[in-house]
Each structure stands twice: as structure tokens, then as C-alpha cells.
Amino acid sequence: MKKSQKVNDLIFVILSILSVLAFLFCLLLKQKFIANQFLFFFLSMFLPCMVELIFKIKIAPFMQITYEIFLILHFVLGEVFNFYVLLNHYDTILHFVTAILLTIFGYSIIHYYLDDNVMFIQLFFAFLFSISCEFFWEILEFTVDHYFATNMQRFIKNGIMLQGHEAIKDTIKDMIVASIGGSSIIFLSKIKLIKNAKIRIK
Asked: 109 near 130, Cβ under 8 Å?
């Protein structure tokens, strides 16, 4: 087993244990919102494993560690410690970076099915893959807000529910930023970062 994979496995175990302990601790303190965030964090940790199992692929440790960092930035810093409110443009920066990483991941997938002579198709697929993931993420945010009374889509400001254009402003902004992030990375398709992120078929 490669050193990078061992490091990722160790990080996975530590984060899983800490998220479960934090979830139970918040339940004892009756902090429902924070407990839910740690629960979502724990469940999201297993998404790469599900992808590997379903599609019979092996995700590079680099991408797995990057994904775990994203979970920390979103659930722990963003939601639990309220960075989304405390820091201006924190949400925008996170969506931009995430779109870049998703585009890299999409490129790494299609690269194993098409040769280098169809680079345009590979890059186009990578871009669409990134935007599709962003689309489903917005659906997830809407669902969580609806059933758990959260404010992931920022449709509530200062305790007041926004209406009309303002209510969907955050969602549309996230989609635009993701589109910019996804399209920007396709011009760097040959850099070492992407090469290190490639998956391999089991």
C-alpha cells in the first residue's frame, strides 16, 4: 500500500471517529443543528467508497484527501463555526475551488475511456460533470433546508425569509461561480495536479 493511501486511511478513521463523538456530544447538549451537521459530515465521508464500489474504480488518494478537506471546510468551519456568515465571500470561494476539483475529477474519469486525440470531448465532459455535481448539491441544500429548517441556501437573512429574486440569489450565484471555476481549469488540463488526480479502473 502506498504511503499516500495509508495517510488517507488514517485521516478517514480519525475524522470518522471525531465526527461520531461530536454528533453524540451535541445530542447530549441538545444542539440539534450542530448534531445534524456532524451526522451529514460522517455520512458524506463514505461517498468516495460508494463511488468506487458502484463504478468499479479506485479514486486517487490525492482526490480523497482533498474531498475530506472540503467536508471540513463546509460542515465544520462553514456550518458549525458559521464561517459562511462571519467571512465575506467564504461560500463563493469554496464553490469556486470545489468546481475546479470536480472538473479535475471528471477529467480523470473520462481520460480512461477516451484517448488523447479527443481532448475536447474530455474537457467538455469534465466541465459538464462539475456543473452536474453543483446542480445536485443545490438540490441537496434545498432538501436539507426544507426538512431540517436550516439555511444552507441563504434564503433567510437576519431571521427574515427573503422573497422573489433575493431568495434565489445565493443559489444562482453558486451556479455561476461553479461554471467559472469549472471552465477555468480546462485550460490547465496537462498540469501535474490533474495527472496526480487520475483514477484507475479496478
From this structure: no
Residues 105, 196, 183, CA angle at the centre, nearest 5°?
A: 40
What is the model's pLDDT at position 96?
92
Q: What is the pLDDT of residue 131?
A: 93
Q: Give the model confidence (pLDDT) of 172-187 as tens digits.
A: 999 999 999 888 876 6
C-alpha cell at 85: 456568515
Residue 41 cell numbers, joined: 459530515
Count of residues making up the chain: 202
How high is the pLDDT of residue 201? 44
194 Cβ contact partners less than 8 Å away, ≥ 6 residues apart? 104, 107, 108, 188
Read off the pTM.
0.76
Spatial separation of the C-alpha atoms in residues 78 and 72, rounded to whole Å: 8
Residue 46 vs residues 41, 51, 122: alpha-carbon distances, Å: 9, 9, 27
- If DSSP codes are grouped into helix, strand and coil, which group holds residue 201? strand
